[in-house]
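> Could you send the GNAT family N-acetyltransferase prediction when you get a chance?

Sure thing. Input:
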Amino acid sequence: MAIGFVRPARPDDAAEIARIQLDTWRSAYRRMFPAHVLANLDVAYLARGWTEAIERPPSERHRVLVAVEQSETASSTVGFAAFGPADEQALAPEEPPLPENVAAITDLLVEPRWGRRGHGSRLLSAAVTHWRDDHFSYAVAWAYEQDKAMQKFLTSAGWEPDGAGRALDVDDMLVPQLRLHVSVDIEAGE
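Output:
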């Protein structure tokens, strides 16, 4: 029987996080982004970024977590989440800064072959625990408009679109996103 759990990422997780990110993007976003853009992404470059995020986060409130599935014979890192205080990357165009009590998910991915086993929910639950410990009251996350699976996952967990939108310029192709938000304030009954 397999057991799933979440733990803080360690520096030696960076390469696996990068591999999961790249494999998931190439699978889930292959119809969203130009093929050459996905083909030219470099796992070593992504791993360096994850090493930096794990070893030298911008603040104590920035975190990277990994989801692990463990059986009697093996242990596999199957997904990850990265989050911290909402910064300029959490904003819609021309939007003023968000309040200091708002957290932002920058990445939340579970490798497709490990999907539908509760790993995403465990990552999100662990994030909420950290947000509450770090005195955040709300959280935001961007989802690609075409990524109905991510939107369904977040809305099933109580998130709602907040009306903000933007489009990422990916090799002269605009890829629209919508932002979702949720209250994580214990006093609000969440």
